[in-house]
Write a structure and sequence with these properties.
Shape: globular
Helix content: 40-55%
Oligomer: single chain
CATH superfamily of the largest domain: Nucleotide cyclase, GGDEF domain
Radius of gyration: 21 Å
Number of domains: 3
Low-confidence stretches: 86-102
C-alpha cells in the first residue's frame, strides 16, 4: 500500500473510532434521563435501536415528515384537546403531516403486526360501553410510545386492536414483547406477526401479508406473541428473545403454515 493510501486509511480508521466514541458517550448521556430518552425515541429524534446499541445502529431513521406525524399521534394520545383547539381532527392532522405519499401500487417489504385484547366483547357486555371506551383509550396511550420507539407505525385502530407495521422484523418482535408485558390488566393483549411484500400507501397497507398476520393473531391467546417461521428466519440473533418450536397450523382462508411462539429469553 502506498504511503498516501496508508495515511488515508489510518485517518478514516481514526475518524471512525472517534465517531464510535462520541456516539457511545452521547447515548450514555441520553440514557441518564430515561424520561427524555423515551420522549425523544417516541417522536423520532433518536432511534431506539441506536440507544440500545449506538455503535451498530444509525442515530435516527425517521424522516422529518414522520417525526411530525409521531408528534401529532403522541399529542392526540396524551392531550386530545390540543388538536381540538387547532380546529383539526386527529385524522385530518395526520393526513396533513405526510406531504410525500407513497406512489400507489408500490410494493415493498414490510413486517405487519396485529394486536387485540382477549375477552374484550365479554368485558364490554359486563362493564358497559363507557368503561370499555376508557380501556381502549388507555390501551392506545400505552401502545403508541412503544410502537413508535421501535420505528413502527400505527396504520389502523380496529376497535380493541391495532394494525401495525415495522421496517424490520427485529423491531416488531421486540415491540410485541414490550406490548404484552405493558398491557395485561384488566385484559391481556395478544399479537400476531408476519412479513412479506405489501402495497404501502401513506395511510394503509394492502396484501396477502396483512391477511396472514390477522389470521395468526386469531391463533394467539392473551399474553402471547405468535409469528410465522418467516419472521423467525429473518430475525437477527437477539439475546433477549426466544423462539418456540414451529407448529404447522391451519389458518382460516390461508394455506397451512408453521407458526412459533416468541418469548423473552430468561437466563
Amino acid at each position: 500500500m502506498a504511503p498516501v493510501e496508508r495515511a488515508k486509511a489510518a485517518g478514516e480508521q481514526a475518524l471512525a473510532s472517534l465517531r464510535r466514541s462520541v456516539s457511545e458517550r452521547l447515548a450514555d448521556v441520553i440514557r441518564s434521563d430515561p424520561s427524555w430518552a423515551a420522549q425523544a425515541a417516541d417522536v423520532g429524534l433518536i432511534d431506539r435501536a441506536w440507544l440500545d446499541s449506538p455503535v451498530e445502529n444509525p442515530f435516527r431513521t425517521a424522516p422529518p415528515t414522520e417525526m411530525v406525524q409521531r408528534f401529532l399521534e403522541r399529542s392526540a394520545e396524551q392531550r386530545p384537546s390540543v388538536l381540538a383547539s387547532m380546529g383539526l381532527s386527529t385524522l385530518q392532522a395526520l393526513s396533513l403531516a405526510r406531504a410525500d405519499p407513497v406512489e400507489a401500487g408500490t410494493s415493498t417489504p414490510v413486517t405487519v403486526m396485529f394486536t387485540d385484547l382477549e375477552g374484550f366483547t365479554r368485558f364490554t357486555t359486563k362493564q358497559g360501553d363507557e368503561v370499555a371506551a376508557g380501556l381502549i383509550a388507555e390501551h392506545q396511550r400505552v401502545a403508541g410510545p412503544i410502537v413508535r420507539s421501535r420505528g413502527g407505525k400505527i396504520v389502523k385502530r380496529l376497535g380493541d386492536g391495532l394494525m401495525l407495521t415495522f421496517p424490520a422484523p427485529e423491531a416488531a418482535v421486540l415491540a410485541a414483547l414490550e406490548l404484552v408485558d405493558a398491557i395485561d390488566r384488566p385484559l391481556r393483549l395478544r399479537a400476531g406477526i408476519h412479513m412479506g411484500e405489501a402495497v404501502v400507501t401513506h395511510d394503509d397497507v394492502f396484501g396477502h401479508v396483512v391477511n396472514v398476520a390477522a389470521r395468526i393473531t386469531e391463533e394467539a391467546t392473551g399474553g402471547m406473541v405468535l409469528a410465522s417461521v418467516d419472521v423467525r428466519q429473518a430475525v437477527a440473533p437477539l439475546p433477549e428473545v426466544q423462539f418456540g418450536r414451529a407448529r404447522r397450523t391451519r389458518l382460516k382462508g390461508v394455506d397451512p403454515m408453521s407458526l412459533c411462539r416468541i418469548e423473552r429469553n430468561t437466563p
